[in-house]
Every structure is written in C-alpha cells, then in structure tokens.
C-alpha cells in the first residue's frame, strides 16, 4: 500500500501537467532573472549566488505545493485516503515524500547548473546542493500543512505560499548559512548544517501531523 | 446546519448566550477601567524625567513595549483557543481565535511602527534587521496569513478548525523562528549598529511602563470580548437568514 | 531635544491604530445588532430565550 501510493503519486507528478517540470523551469527562470536585476558583475553574483539559488528553490518548492492534496480532492481519492484504517499521518508522509521526489529532487539536481550561472566555485556549488538536498524536504513537510489547510479553497495556491513562507524562514536561514560557511573560512560548516538536519527531521514529524489534522477537519 | 446547532448547543462551560449576557455586563466596566488606566498611564509617561542616554525618546517605550508584549500574548491566547477548538470543539473557542487575529495584527503593527520611530533618532535608520524586530515582523506576517485564511473560507466552523491547526503549527514554530533569526542576526551583525538592549530599566520608568502595560492588556481584552460578541451575532444573523430562507422556500 | 516629533508621531500612530480598532469593533457590533433587530422585526424568531430551535424548526410544516 505504501509503495503503491508512492509510485502512483510519483507517476502523477512527472506526467505532463503534473507540475514537476514547471517547478524546475520556474526555478531556472527566477535565478536567470537575478543578473538582470543586480547587474552582470561576476564577483557580486558569486557572493550572493548561494542565497539566490536557495531563494529560487524556496519559491519553486512553494509553487507546486497546492497540488499536493488538491488533485486528490478533485478526483475523490482524498476521501478514500481519509477513510482508510491506515494512519492518515503515514499516508500524508508518503504523499510528501512522493511530492518531494517529483518536485523537490529535480530542483536539487538543477541547482549545480544554476550555480555555474551565478559564478559560484565548486565548493559553494557542492555545499548549496547538499543543503538543498537536506533542506527541501523540510519545505515540503511544512508546506503540506499549508496545502492541507487550503485544500478546500478553489484557488488556494497563493494563500499556501503566504501561510508557509514565514514558517519556512528557519530553513532558509540555516540552508544559506551552511552554504556560506562552506566557502567563507572563519565560519564552521557543521553547526548550521546539523541544525538544518534537525529542522528537517522536526518538520518531518510536525508537518504530516498538522496536515493530517487539517485534512480531517477540512473534510467532514 | 451543524454550525447553528453548535451555536445553540447548551454547553456547561459557557454557552454563547451566557457569554453574551456576561459580556453585556462586563464590557462597560472594562471600558471604564481601561480609559482610567490610560489616563493615568499617559499622565505618568509624560510626567517622568527623560533618560540621560536615550533622552526624551524613552517615552516611546511606554507604547512600544506594551504593544510588543500584546503581540505575543495575543498569539498565546489564540493558541489556547485553537486547542479549545480542536480538543473540545467549543464554539466560543472558534469565535475567540477568529476575533483575536485582527487585534493581534493591529498591536503588532503598533509595535513595529513605534519601534521604527524609536529607531530613527536612536540608530539613524527607520529599520534595522535586528533579531527582535525581525521576529516581530514575521509574527505580523503570520497574523496577516491567518486573517487571509479566515476570510477566504465560507463555512465559519470549518475555517475555525482549519486555522486552529495553522495557529498551533505556527505556535510550535515561533521558538524555532526566534532561534534562527537570532542565529542569523549574530552572523550578519553590522558593526555600526548600537547595541539594542539599552540600560537596565530604571525604577522611574517602571511605573508608567507597568500602568501602560496593564492598560494595553485591558484594552485588548475589552476589544477581544466585544469582537467575540460581534462574531457571535454575525453567526446568529447568518443562521437566522438561512432559517428564514428555508421557511420562505417551504411556504412557496 | 528634537525628538519630540518622533515621540508625538509614535503616540499619534498608536492612538490612530487603537481608535481604528475601537471604531471597527464598535461599528461592527452596531451593524450586527441592527441586523438582529431587523430580523426580529420581520418575524424571524430564534432568540437566545428559546434555545431549542432545531426542534422548533422541524415541527414547522
């Protein structure tokens, strides 16, 4: 049942219209637009590069979130998931994982390319990719709460972003801090990185719990 | 229909009808006491001497600190009401956190604006990305998100339960946000900014501050009770209109 | 001290926001009370004095 749900959601998200590719495209577009705003100064770009890549990833991760439960609600499968004797928290966790594999992982894979655009060196690119790999699941988990809260709304996508962004600030702070710490000498890399890991694990518990609670309350 | 049932349901704790009666009796008194306290507090805050370091601007503290305190207390009140909504399904708790959100946003706005006005003569800039200011700003965004969510939903009882989940998730997150903003701030602390935690508060400033804090808190509770009463009335009007429409439909 | 301006502005702003809040709560309450009175006048009866309205409404033909 767990793997079946995982594969079903994955297939739906990579299918045309699933939104996974749209997220990556949005990510690349946002990062590509930054030089037009701040100018083509390569030193400046390499200095703000990790931050820009992180912000781009944050925004793109939010972009696809409203589809997390809404498609299931539209075709009625959400009611089936709610009625199962399987714990709903686990179901939500699986759905989050599938959503991350479909929408978050492509962002991580695309980030080195964008790092090159931003004139970042190899260490910075590697650190940014690693922190994105650890941090984007947290964005999906905390975003699941927003998606579940706004599931009943016809056009909840923008609202989800507004609700989730303040809660995602810690992820952004520690992700960017760790990326910078890998490049700049005095700051140690491990403390912010480990805190990022801790935040991800904490959200992996809190997110599905809150989302399951919201889904139960939004649907009776 | 569940909503009007929930409203008319007689609960032993405090049913909305009893709450309305209590509010009608208590509100005038609370309003009077608040006004008196504000008069005393305002007199005290302009009668005391200025601080030798901060000069006259220390008077801004008398409105800034109570507003900042209320911005946090209001979220705690909302979190408690959210628990009431989710655990006991208490109709008054629904009404309580819905009515509190705009009040919290307003007091947070006061705290931000007066902080900015205090910062201008003290640090020479309107806004500093100081840890405390930033946290309060994030709190403000959370309030606005909650208001937006409440407004976007038609069914009030569903909106109450769903936003209760969000309030609680946000409440759990506030310490994390505070911690991360502190971390971020020590990382990026610009050298030119004066340290923000000024001298320890003198006894002279304590009295006006205390009176103003109590006055602000009472103002919040007065407005909260009045806003809750409005919300109950709003739901009754909606329920009665639905009943009227149904009755009209049956007659036709 | 030239700080008077900032002090006055911050107190004025606080007063403005607080007064807006009070006015909003007050006017909202008055509007709701008016609506309730209007419904009452038009004969739709579901007052707090008769809390068993679900029974009452199902009795209606």
In short:
The complex is a heterotrimer of chains A (220), B (252) and C (61). With 220 residues, chain A is mainly α.
Q: What are the defining features of this structure?
A:
heterotrimer; A: 220 residues; mainly alpha; elongated; B: 252 residues; 82% helix; disordered N terminus
Radius of gyration of chain A: 18 Å
Poorly predicted regions of chain C: 47-61
Proportion in β-strands of chain C: under 5%
Structural class of chain C: mainly alpha
Q: Average pLDDT across residues of chain C?
A: 74
Shape assignment of chain A = elongated
Describe the structure.
- In chain A, 83% of the residues lie in helices and 0% in strands.
- Chain A is built from 9 helices and no strands.
- Chain B has one domain (15-189, 203-239).
- In chain B, helix 5 (131-152) runs antiparallel to helix 6 (156-188).
- Chain B contains 7 helices and no strands.
- Chain B is mainly alpha-helical.
- Chain B has helices at residues 2-8, 16-47, 58-88, 91-123, 131-152, 156-188, 203-251.
- Chain C is 74% helix and 0% strand.
């Amino acid at each position: 049942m767990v793997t079946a749900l995982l594969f079903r959601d994955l297939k739906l998200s990579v299918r045309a219209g699933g939104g996974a590719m749209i997220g990556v495209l949005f990510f690349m577009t946002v990062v590509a637009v930054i030089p037009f705003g701040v100018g083509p100064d390569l030193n400046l770009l390499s200095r703000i590069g990790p931050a820009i890549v992180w912000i781009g990833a944050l925004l793109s991760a939010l972009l696809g979130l409203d589809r997390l439960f809404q498609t299931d609600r539209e075709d009625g499968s959400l009611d089936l998931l709610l009625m199962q004797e399987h714990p709903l928290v686990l179901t939500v966790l699986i759905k989050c994982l599938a959503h991350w594999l479909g929408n978050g992982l492509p962002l991580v894979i695309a980030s080195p390319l964008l790092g090159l655009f931003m004139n970042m060196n190899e260490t910075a690119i590697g650190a940014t990719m690693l922190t994105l790999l650890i941090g984007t699941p947290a964005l999906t988990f905390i975003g699941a709460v927003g998606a579940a809260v706004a599931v009943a709304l016809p056009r909840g996508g923008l609202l989800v972003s507004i609700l989730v962004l303040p809660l995602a600030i810690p992820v952004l702070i520690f992700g960017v801090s760790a990326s910078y710490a890998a490049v700049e000498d005095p700051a140690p890399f491990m403390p912010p990185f480990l805190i990022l890991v801790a935040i991800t694990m904490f959200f992996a518990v809190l997110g599905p719990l809150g989302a399951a609670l919201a889904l139960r309350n939004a649907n009776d | 229909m569940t909503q009007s049932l929930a409203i008319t349901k007689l609960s032993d704790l405090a049913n909305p009808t009893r709450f309305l009666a209590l509010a009608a009796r208590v509100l005038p008194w609370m309003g009077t006491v608040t006004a008196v306290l504000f008069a005393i507090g305002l007199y005290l805050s302009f009668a005391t001497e200025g601080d030798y370091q901060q000069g006259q601007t220390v008077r801004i503290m008398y409105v800034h600190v109570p507003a900042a305190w209320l911005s946090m207390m209001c979220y705690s009140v909302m979190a408690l009401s959210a628990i009431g909504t989710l655990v006991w399904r208490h109709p008054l708790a629904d009404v309580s956190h819905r009515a509190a959100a705009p009040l919290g946003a307003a007091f947070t706005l006061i705290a931000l604006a007066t902080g900015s006005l205090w910062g201008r003569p003290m640090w020479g800039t309107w806004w500093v990305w100081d840890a405390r200011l930033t946290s309060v700003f994030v709190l403000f965004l959370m309030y606005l998100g909650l208001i937006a969510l409440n407004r976007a939903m038609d069914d009030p009882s569903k909106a109450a339960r769903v936003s209760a989940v969000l309030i609680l998730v946000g409440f759990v997150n506030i310490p994390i946000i505070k911690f991360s903003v502190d971390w971020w701030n020590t990382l990026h602390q610009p050298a030119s900014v004066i340290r923000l935690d000024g001298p320890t508060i003198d006894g002279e400033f304590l009295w006006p501050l205390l009176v103003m804090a109590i006055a602000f808190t009472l103002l919040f509770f007065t407005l909260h009770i009045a806003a809750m009463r409005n919300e109950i009335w709003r739901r009754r009007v909606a329920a009665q209109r639905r009943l009227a429409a149904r009755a009209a439909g049956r007659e036709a | 001290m030239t700080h008077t301006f900032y002090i006055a502005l911050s107190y004025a702003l606080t007063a403005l926001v607080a007064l807006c809040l009070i006015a909003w709560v007050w006017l909202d309450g008055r509007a709701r009370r008016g609506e309730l009175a209007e419904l009452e006048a038009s004969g739709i009866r579901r007052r707090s004095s008769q809390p068993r309205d679900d029974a009452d409404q199902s009795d209606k033909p």
